[in-house]
UniProtKB/TrEMBL annotation:
Pfam families xref list: HEAT_EF3_GNC1, HEAT_EF3_N
GO biological process: cellular response to amino acid starvation; regulation of translation
UniProt keyword terms in alphabetical order: Repeat
Gene3D superfamilies: Leucine-rich Repeat Variant
HEAT repeat segments: 461-499
One function term, GO molecular function aspect: protein kinase regulator activity
Bilayer-crossing regions: none
Protein source organism: Strombidium inclinatum
SUPFAM superfamilies listed in its UniProt record: ARM repeat
Domain of life assignment: Eukaryota
GO cellular component entries: cytosol
Family annotation (InterPro entries): ARM-like, ARM-type_fold, HEAT_type_2
Protein's name according to its UniProt entry: Translational activator GCN1
Signal peptide annotation: none
Amino acid sequence: EIVVVKQLNLEALKNTGDDNNFEGGKRFNRIALPQIISKTCKFIPTSSVEKLLDFFITTGSVDSDPKISQACLEAADALVRSRGNDFSGKMLTILEGFIENAEDYKEESVHHAIVLVGTLSSFLDKGCQKKLVHTFEKMLTLLLRSKDKGASELVNKSICKCIPLLAHYFDEKAKHTFNDMFNILRKGKHEHELRGAAYACSGIIKGFGMRFFNERDVLGIVQRECFTGKKTDPLRNQAGLILYETLSYSMGKSFEPFVKTILENILNSISDAKEAVRSCANAANGQIVANLSNYAIKQVVPMFLEGLTVDHWRGKFASVEAIGNMAYCAPKQILGFLPDIVKALREVLNDTHERVHEAALKAISSIGSVIKCPEVAELLDIIIKALGNSNLYLNECLDMLLQTSFVHAIDAPSLSLLVPLVDIGLMMHDNSSKQKASQLVGNICSLTQDPEDLLPYMKILIPAIKNSLFDSIPEIRASAAKALGKLSKGLGLANSIELLDWLNNNLHRTDLAASERSGAAQGLSEIVSAHGDNFFSNQCKTIIGPTQSKEVHLRESYRTVMAYLPTSFGNFVNYLVVLLPIMIEGLGDVSDEVRKISLRNVKICISQYGKKASEMLCKPILVMMFDKDHRVRVSSSILMYQLVKEMENDVIKSQPKYINMSMKHQILSSMFILKFDPVEKVHLQASQIWKSLVDAPVHILRMIIRTLIEIVFKNIQSSHNELQVMGLACMRGLVEKFGERIVNESLDIFESYLEKATDLHQTTGITKVIQNMTAAASYRLLIQIKHRLINIAMPFLVYDNQEIRELSCRVFITIFKRMGDSQVTQNILGNCFLEKLNTLIHSKDKESQKQITNLIAGVKFITETAFELKIEDKIMNLCEVPSHKLTKPLTTTQAVILRAIAPKVAPLVFNKKYYNTFYMAMTAELTQEPKVPEIQSEERTQAILMCFAELMANVPTNEYVMTNEEIICFHDACIKRNTYGLYIDLIKYYCENTPSNYEKHAKFYAMNVL
């Protein structure tokens, strides 16, 4: 730029201006030169300053192209401002030459010189300012003589700038000049004279200060002479209005205290019948408003707004015009009042008077004209139409706004027009308008750069959004909630506390409809999600608390909030580990609505994060698939199926992508086990899912068998009956359907579990499984595995726990029944019971004695439970009772086990020969000398005696006579053998345990004992 300006000389600029008939392209080439000079004044060589200034005044100002003329004036003005300190004296000499010799130059050049004197005046020292006094009268003469209105305004303002600086140099003369000029205002006949005089008066007042202004009572005289009376001269109205305008221009903020007193005159004049008066009033209004401070604007705007409510159309018209001027002339000052202004103008738009309606449209256009957002400015016409006729243009306008791609931020004037559109849309009856308006709110909040710009519109936006938030249409609620979230984000957290409180209060209400609860929950989720991780983390505690409440409506409300969090909060996956268990926990709630909402919550999480957080979602769902509540199991199976589908059926792939192999096996195992749920609804649901997922069940089951049995085993150990039933049914199903392909491997796993079993639950579970597998196995399979089953069950025959002992006995009962072979049964009894009992009897420790009792209890349980098997017969045969001979006497072991079946044999002992052999064997052992003396022992004798006593004590009452006779015989035999103790022990046990009434023979028994 320095090089260009140095190369630029006066001749080049003159040459570009010789031709007066330039085309558009050439004009832009010429206009570039003064524009370059305007931007680079400080680099212009000293030798060129005077020449350029002279050129711009004499040649540039009279150019035939007005744009070039204006550009030259601006270049000269920039030159004076930039170099005024250095060349003020020389510049003043040049400019005074034009003014003093005005007749030698064109009028435009003289006017431009006067304008530049005004610019230069602030750079002059006192000596130079005194010199201006000599040219002052000439300037006033030219001012009042001027015929060119456009140029005169520049001159007027320039003189007005000079006068305050010069007034104290010619005190008396200035006062006389003021009087002369004021008289012109009171009596002048031409507007240009009035305007020149007004600027002169205003400049003098500025120079002498407020005291001079008050002493002269300027406003009082203007009020009396220009605005008082029914019929005032229009020229006087114009004079007063022009003076108001110039006083504001000259005095600036100092004129503010008087604005309220003159505002009524201006408003009345704006609606005057004369065009000239209206024009002056609008100019005065614009100038005054442009100079007002924010405080003064606060005092003035309510007066304008109040004027919009008057009944007379002229009053409304005046206020609307004033507001329009104010919006155009002072956009920054009225930003805070735009909401109230536009709201008032919207009401005026519906006025029946055409001029009022047109003025309102014009005022809104004035607001629109200061919009800085290009995207909104382009749509200004349709926005104004929509505000004027919402029924016809609103939807079109909303569509255009929503389709617009915004690059620039939305400024306050744009907000003042867009927010009313949103308000209208949200209050419309049709759903389309509501939804579009809600979306537009969100866009507005996102695009507003300064949150404070939104605050004035809260009284409009919040009620409308709240209304839409409770709408019955879900789409409208969703749009309103998103708008609320974005609005909260735009306003900031500090300004959103009231919104949060309102939403929480609604969620605590018991009378809230389902749609209203949903809207409040969605709104809360959007706000909570709008302010980042820290705020979300803190609010999680507030949301989780009520989900555990005893009040159903609170659980329902805040679980509904959870339903919207996954979609509204981008980082929700980080909080999944905390919130997902709570969501799944709700599946077992007593309230049907809470269960439905909880199911929906988890479904949303699955759809959002099924691939991102697969394992995190799987773990709690797997746990809930075996919940005590069957409703939870149904819901969990549905959720797991949805999750599997979301993971693209990952569980049936050889190498899953989203989960590990262990998780895959757990999912498949859990699905298979649920097929055997005792609740039909769960069973049907799981069966359908299994079929849809698995094509080769045997292959899959072999792959997952270890995990499957582990889960089955856990269920069998559960304290809940339904889970136990499910686990056992699953094992039965495996055995029945897949047989030896699965069973042998299953038995290996259970045997390994048995080795590691540390508590009662585990042992009980294993015995239950073995018992069920025994019952479910086919005959062929049972033949193959019966020895393994017996080996697993046999140790539990002597177990202390009755349930475990009975379960192991049932394994034997099932085998006995299923095999249907007496010889096999007898062999098993001999191998498992007699041999075990014999081992225990020969072991003398206390634990063995306890185990003997348990084993005998097991034998009794088998004989009593499976009476149809006639186990007692097989034990008698095993002990060779029917063919008993003293050459092969009974052993202690046989006596002990025979005692276990004595209660079953006793009822038939005197009726059937087969069973009578039991009695005969006992009496022979007790009353005759043994043929094998070496086996005789006190222990054996006592065991046989107790077996005999058990038999006699259990003989039915109707056989009492026979029993008594046998007791007498036994007494006689004991006398012969000198074994009195045997008789005494028999009588003791018999009298304690027999159901028969032995009263008649009690004396006899007692005597024999004695």
